[in-house]
Amino acid sequence: LRLYDSSDMLPYQLSLDHGYFEGCFDICHDWTLGERRFENPADAEDEETKHDASEGVGPFHLRPILGACADVATSIGEDGSYASYATLLPPSTDPPTGLTFPQYVLKRYADLGLLGTVLDLGRICPDDLAKFVEQDERMVDHRWIVRVRSGQYGSARDGLIDVVRDGPGAAGGRKPQTVAERELTLSLAKLCHGRDDSMSATTRRAQGRAVEDGLTLLSVQRLVAPSSSDERPIRPVELLNLVRDRAVGSASSDEAGQLCVAGLAVAEVATRSSGESAARFASPVWSIAILYDVDLWRSTAAEYAAGAGGNLGAGRGIDDALSGTV
Fold this sequence. Notes:
Elements lengths: L8 H9 L3 H12 L29 H12 L27 H11 L3 H7 L4 H10 L7 H7 L3 H13 L13 H17 L5 H24 L11 H13 L4 H22 L3 H15 L1 H12 L10 H10 L1
């Protein structure tokens, strides 16, 4: 029929009359986001069907239909209020898929890769959107948005952490995150964490630590590799080795000291994430710090050997050595 009616009015009306979800979606999509979105529906003769066009909605638009479905689902719409969409309203479903019309629309746009449109239209039918994003793995990176909209800040934080923790490409063939993208993800998680008041102080600290640890690693990576914004984040052990190498080749003790402090921060994160002994990660960093003050430590040892009476802390040498190294 669409081949013989360039206005699409008759095919659209027949789709509405018979509850043909695919026909309604295809026509609405073509006129709003698809290949006919820049055309003027001049062939439509019924002025009543065109009143929405002046309001920027157009004769073929999914928004009023989704709004009607949402109202009926929540018992807001009165009987007969949405007679023109009666075949699309709940509990009507699409026979091939078993989906209600809002669920069908969200799935079709996800199939087209238009996830932003899914989130936009989902504002009209929030219950359907919430269910869809939790069930469809293609929406895994966007679940936090829906959770924030509904005030579920703790759940939003957890969703953002999962995006980082699951690793690159864990769901739906996602591209690996860059340093800048992960920094944004964790910063958003930190903001959500700050708004979450649904837990005890102890649990709150534990939940926030994962976010802070991730931001610490990114901060250190930017320190040792300033141009790494478009590169992948480095794992803690690899980052610790990089910091040590930079510290060993440092031109000044001040720079080495800064790098050692950064290395100890990475060592702390690595200890927590691996569950291994802190000495394994921290001792190599301390050894580098001591090497930069080796002359001071040697003179302190010589002073002790020459007769400090067994009290190593009695002289200023130990104070200078500790303050310089630590």
